[in-house]
From TrEMBL:
<dbReference type="InterPro" id="IPR051395">
    <property type="entry name" value="Cytochrome_c_Peroxidase/MauG"/>
</dbReference>
<feature type="signal peptide">
    <location>
        <begin position="1"/>
        <end position="25"/>
    </location>
</feature>
<keyword id="KW-0574">Periplasm</keyword>
<feature type="binding site" description="axial binding residue">
    <location>
        <position position="110"/>
    </location>
    <ligand>
        <name>heme c 1</name>
    </ligand>
</feature>
<feature type="binding site" description="axial binding residue">
    <location>
        <position position="252"/>
    </location>
    <ligand>
        <name>heme c 2</name>
    </ligand>
</feature>
<keyword id="KW-0408">Iron</keyword>
<dbReference type="GO" id="GO:0046872">
    <property type="term" value="F:metal ion binding"/>
</dbReference>
<dbReference type="GO" id="GO:0004130">
    <property type="term" value="F:cytochrome-c peroxidase activity"/>
</dbReference>
<dbReference type="InterPro" id="IPR004852">
    <property type="entry name" value="Di-haem_cyt_c_peroxidsae"/>
</dbReference>
<feature type="binding site" description="covalent">
    <location>
        <position position="248"/>
    </location>
    <ligand>
        <name>heme c 2</name>
    </ligand>
</feature>
<feature type="binding site" description="covalent">
    <location>
        <position position="106"/>
    </location>
    <ligand>
        <name>heme c 1</name>
    </ligand>
</feature>
<feature type="binding site" description="covalent">
    <location>
        <position position="109"/>
    </location>
    <ligand>
        <name>heme c 1</name>
    </ligand>
</feature>
<dbReference type="Pfam" id="PF03150">
    <property type="entry name" value="CCP_MauG"/>
</dbReference>
<keyword id="KW-0732">Signal</keyword>
<dbReference type="InterPro" id="IPR009056">
    <property type="entry name" value="Cyt_c-like_dom"/>
</dbReference>
<feature type="binding site" description="covalent">
    <location>
        <position position="251"/>
    </location>
    <ligand>
        <name>heme c 2</name>
    </ligand>
</feature>
<feature type="domain" description="Cytochrome c">
    <location>
        <begin position="85"/>
        <end position="208"/>
    </location>
</feature>
């Protein structure tokens, strides 16, 4: 023993000290355990097991500072369904190009079989915005249009009918026009109880139909409702990444995967190189420059191209761009200030694929709505 050199002696003393400290710490820990369980302990169970429970018990999401924390949720239907007669009238008006200059009806750009989009980069007619899927847009009330400039359905429909890029009509002309189409009379009687045709009734009937357009149940909904076999392991991993490492849940949340807020993702330039200031176009506030409303993500796999300007051609590309913190890659100029929540994400190729697989679990079946026979 006496031959221990200084180094060895140091190691021995250090080891004894370390052991003491550790056992003291353990003591303190087990002392604590008596009053409260150790919640910090990492949950090492497989993700499928950790998610096979009600959402309030899911692993904690990665919430960014200042974000209103809203969990993902199952699909909900419009709580105020319209009468069958109102929907028949609204549907006819939705498909009727006689509301405008006869080039377009609502259904020209919102084509049912294309998940209510036209698949074009920007809507035909010279506008600078991509035609959105209008499923579940009742939920957007107060925030309609990609910049939120329409507070009500009536305002949104008036904008569509009167826009030179859309239907190039005039709402004030419509009562006269529709009275001249005798087939509309019984439909107004059925919907409203009398044959009076007014601007308000026309807008209200189109709104009723538009707000009845919904997506359907998805594998994601089945899973949240307790069918824990509805998602594959890869989709569950994707959902976990969506809520944690990838941070998507900070903006895409609730039953429709939108926070109904406005964010600047940096894609400010239109296809023709002009700035689209988004929300600032009508609020005139510098802080709103380049901001657009978070779009919902149900059926997103089917609604390419993406973003308000239709510049992103595929969902794979969209996710790759998000992972790379978006715009700079494309040489896009930013109007205003990029959202602080858009960051470079450290995702592996497998994790990127899992995120895409999860987005696929938000798909419902293709709408089977047929065009009506229009009244003459
Ligand atoms: C020429 C193509 C075109 C026509 C016709 C058209 N839309 Fe649209 N629709 C669009 C585009 C593009 C947007 C996004 C506009 C924007 O943000 O400025 C939009 C937005 C909407 C929205 C809001 C969706 C959201 O995410 O905020 C609804 C609802 C809607 N349209 C319904 C209708 C109805 C109802 C009609 C008929 C009265 C109609 N549209 C006619 C292209 C069209
Ligand atoms: C800061 C809020 C925010 C975060 C975080 C965010 N998004 Fe988005 N997302 C948006 C907004 C806003 C748009 C629309 C931007 C535009 O049109 O210019 C969008 C667009 C999209 C689109 C295109 C949808 C369409 O219909 O055009 C997809 C897909 C998407 N996001 C998925 C994701 C995924 C996956 C994540 C996580 C990796 C994510 N987002 C993170 C706000 C966000």
């Amino acid at each position: 023993m006496s031959v221990l050199n200084t180094k060895t002696r140091f190691v021995v003393v250090f080891t004894i000290l370390a052991c003491l400290t550790l056992s003291l710490a353990n003591c303190a820990k087990s002392g604590n355990k008596a009053d409260k369980p150790d919640v910090e302990k990492e949950d090492t169970r497989p993700l499928r097991q950790r998610y096979s429970t009600a959402p309030q018990n899911w692993p904690k999401a990665n919430w960014y500072q200042g974000v209103k924390q809203t969990e993902l949720a199952v699909f909900i239907s419009n709580p105020k369904p319209a009468s069958e007669e109102m929907l028949v009238l609204g549907k006819a008006l939705f498909f009727d190009n006689r509301l405008g200059n006869r080039n377009n009806s609502c259904a020209s750009c919102h084509v049912p079989a294309n998940y209510w989009t036209d698949k074009a980069i920007v809507a035909a007619g010279g506008g600078n915005r991509n035609s959105p899927n209008i499923q579940n847009s009742w939920y957007l009330n107060g925030n309609l249009m990609l910049d939120g400039r329409a507070a009500t359905s009536a305002q949104q429909i008036t904008l569509a009918i009167e826009s030179p890029h859309e239907m190039a009509g005039k709402v004030s002309d419509l009562p006269k026009r529709l009275k001249a189409i005798v087939g509309y009379k019984p439909m107004f009687v059925a919907a409203y109880g009398n044959e009076d045709i007014t601007e308000e009734k026309i807008l209200n009937a189109i709104a009723a139909f538009s707000n009845s357009i919904e997506s359907g149940k998805t594998a994601f909904d089945d899973f949240v409702e307790g069918d824990y076999a509805a998602l594959s392991d890869e989709q569950i991993e994707g959902m976990h990444l969506f809520r944690t490492k990838a941070g998507c849940i900070n903006c895409h949340n609730g039953p429709f995967f939108t926070d109904l807020e406005y964010h600047n993702l940096g894609y400010s330039l239109d296809f023709d190189g002009q700035y689209d200031y988004g929300r600032a176009n009508f609020t005139d506030k510098a802080i709103d420059r380049g901001k657009f409303r978070t779009p919902g993500l149900r059926n997103v796999s089917y609604t390419a191209p993406y973003l308000h300007n239709g510049t992103v051609a595929s969902l794979d590309e969209m996710v790759d761009l998000l992972i790379d913190s978006l715009p700079q890659l494309q040489g896009q100029k930013i109007a205003g200030t990029l959202s602080p929540h858009i960051k470079k994400l450290n995702l592996s190729y497998d994790e990127r694929n899992a995120l895409l697989a999860f987005l696929g679990s938000l798909n419902s079946s293709r709408p089977g709505v047929q065009p009506p026979v229009l009244p003459q």
